[in-house]
Hints:
- It is a single chain.
- It is built from 8 helices and 11 strands.
- The chain has helices spanning 2-12, 59-72, 77-87, 100-103, 206-214, 219-269, 279-293, 316-319; strands spanning 19-25, 35-41, 47-48, 53-55, 92-94, 104-105, 110-115, 136-141, 147-153, 162-165, 182-185.
- A 5-stranded antiparallel beta sheet has the order 7-2-1-10-11, with no helix packed on it.
Amino acid sequence: MLLCAILALPTLAQGRKNVRINEVMVQQDSTGGNGWIEFYNSSYSTNAVEKMFITTLSREEVKNHIKEVTSTSKVKPNKVLIEWCKERPTEIYEIPRGDERNTKIAPRTHFVMEADGDPKGGTFHLPFTLKAGQDNYVALYDVNGDLVDDVTIPASLKPGETYAIEKEGRLPSVLEDGKTTWTVKDGKTIETAITKGNYNAREVNENIEKFREEDPHGYWIALLAMSVVFSALALLYICFKLFGKFASRNLKDESKEQAPAAVATTAAAVPAASGDLDGEKMAAICFALYQHLNAHDQESGVLTLSPRDGSGWASKTGLMRELPVIKK
């Protein structure tokens, strides 16, 4: 059980950590229009994004503020961000709890936050806007205050264009892994189509393709699967064997300790023989044994049902009250 718990620790580290910023639009066209930020759940499990934080504050500013507050008190980082949401509501936003139907993001799907500066518009409306003609920084923080993902949208991004993860690039999986390629999409071709609300990932899984190239016949995966199964069985056998030896050793030690005491107690409890029992006691014991061993007669095993003329339950007349007979 301990080994299983240790092996399960990496899976516990997943979840909200796999939510990634996928595509950002700063301005819809030259006349204006609110921008939006598309997030993507890159994991293979459903993630609830409620209570996560989205902000335009720089990483250093958030880090220094959390460090400053937590160094003088025992406040947790997420509490610091919650208080900051009240103090600076136009720069940091906490995804509210209560909209579970929409904030539970299915595996390998997306959700879009409208950067329109109107948080009263609903769960997916941010209290800030993105400014055209300058760098825009957006960060996503976990419920415990850890940085999950961030991106800086360049000032060169024109109205009507988006800053998105390249279609042929690696799926976002690790913060700042250096392997996620960003590109500008103008919507003029299929390759540069703006896919608001539709993650622009490859249909082919690069990990599966790589494994297929290295093991085309599946020998290694079969060997790996059998090794895992037999290793688990061998580990269980060793654990049960050691547990049995440990338990039997404890039982032997306890029996050795209790044996002298039990002998002494039995010797002290049994009185000295005072002679043979008299005839009456022996007869009573024999009679009791006879009755115990011969409690029932031998039955034939056949049930015989004999009909009756009637009973108080079946006779209607027997259920009626009889009137007293008056003698003349």
